[in-house]
Specification:
Elements lengths: L6 E6 L2 E6 L10 H15 L6 E6 L4 E3 L4 H8 L4 H18 L5 E5 L2 E3 L1 H4 L6 E4 L4 E3 L13 H4 L7 H8 L5 H7 L4 E2 L5 H10 L4 H8 L12 H7 L5 H11 L2 H10 L4 H14 L5 H15 L3 H12 L17 H8 L13
Parallel strand pairs: 2-3, 3-5, 4-6, 5-7, 6-8, 7-9
Antiparallel strand pairs: 1-2
């Protein structure tokens, strides 16, 4: 055991610095980590000495691979109280960052998935490096792209967010910068200079990043943008499947093959989440929707089975129930999105 804290928090030269420090778990977030970050951000919000905030990670293996999925699954197998408490805390942190009055910089150096996206996408400055790998792979474990996915993904160019959310496609920095997921590309050997220059101008991280950014290379997604926008524009998963099959290209059939490995229930939840999310008036409304979903989806067969298959047994052979899109009832999906009793709904921090 180590006494090293899972989040390192300090103020240096006008910069509030938050460093994720759980490298063996790829900095996967737990409730205590979210609480520590929230406490620091609330304190710095009122501190005139803190001009901006930087979130990064210790080590080289990844920024943040998500949330504590094992805990969430174990809780979901019972009453889901612990899972809901985690979602409440995590989503409040996401919203606090989204509405924060000082600039936040997220240095997304390495793997960023799930919960890691939730604590980087709200940042004003989002720096990718040559080690960045971005994905929202939740449909592969019977979940949905939460932590603000309904807001951020639905606002990416065209239907690229729909494609990413449903397939769980992994992107490197050339694509994330091209799509606006990340605002800047800096090679890792420029990060030390970023920190050094930011100390001289802590209130303007975007200007500092602008002065150091490099070309990330050619985006691979650009060649498929027209097809993505056309084929993923439908409002039913069945129609998207049919469009991909009718397209018949190698790329379209590869997307279809990927989608057929995902939870049919999760695909339907995710598409509805994104279609609703793009019309919501504010980020808080999106988090209300996702909190309703989160507490319910973690109790479903598909989430339990997805975690068993991908994370516990690692056999890659989940037995989804229902096994087909046609067998997923509209009423069942509606029930997952239904309002909670007023006293149980998600609310932001004051």
């Amino acid at each position: 055991m180590t006494d090293e804290p899972e989040v390192l928090i300090r103020v240096q030269s006008g910069i509030g610095r938050i460093t994720l420090n759980r490298p063996k778990a790829l900095h996967a977030l737990n409730k205590a980590m979210c609480e520590a970050m929230t406490t620091a951000l609330l304190a710095w919000r009122e501190d005139p000495a803190v001009k901006s905030v930087v979130i990064d990670h210790a080590g080289e293996r990844g920024f943040c691979a998500g949330g504590d999925i094992r805990m969430i699954a174990e809780s979901g197998a019972g009453d889901a109280v612990e899972a809901r408490a985690f979602f409440l805390t995590e989503y409040r942190l996401n919203h606090l960052m989204f509405t924060y009055p000082r600039p936040i910089t997220a240095i997304v150096d390495g793997i960023v998935m799930g919960g890691g996206v939730g604590i980087s996408e709200p940042a004003e400055v989002r720096i990718a490096t040559e080690r960045t790998t971005y994905a929202m792979p939740e449909t592969g474990i019977g979940l949905f792209p939460d932590v603000g996915g309904g807001w951020f993904l639905s606002r990416l160019p065209g239907e690229t967010g729909t494609w990413l959310a449903m397939t769980g496609a992994r992107l490197k920095a050339a694509d994330t910068v091209f799509l606006g997921i990340h605002t800047h590309y800096l090679p890792t050997d420029a990060l030390e200079a970023f920190h050094a220059i930011l100390k001289t101008d802590p209130a303007h991280p975007a200007d500092v990043a602008d002065g150091l950014e490099a070309e990330p290379g050619e985006p691979t997604v650009e060649a498929h943008a027209e097809a993505i926008d056309r084929l993923f524009a439908h409002d039913s998963v069945e129609a998207i499947f049919a469009a991909l099959e009718a397209e018949g290209t190698d790329w379209a059939l590869a997307q279809l093959a990927t989608l057929k490995t995902k939870s049919p229930q999760s695909l339907k939840v995710t598409l509805r989440q994104l279609r609703l999310g793009r019309d919501l008036p504010d980020f808080a409304s999106n988090m209300v929707m996702e909190y309703r979903l989160g507490g319910r989806v973690v109790r479903t067969h598909d989430f339990q089975e997805g975690v068993r298959s991908v994370i516990v047994d690692k056999d890659g052979a989940p037995a989804w129930q229902p096994a087909t899109l046609e067998a997923v009832s509209d009423a069942g999906i509606e029930a997952l999105f239904a309002p909670l009793p007023p006293e149980e709904e998600w609310t932001p921090l004051g």
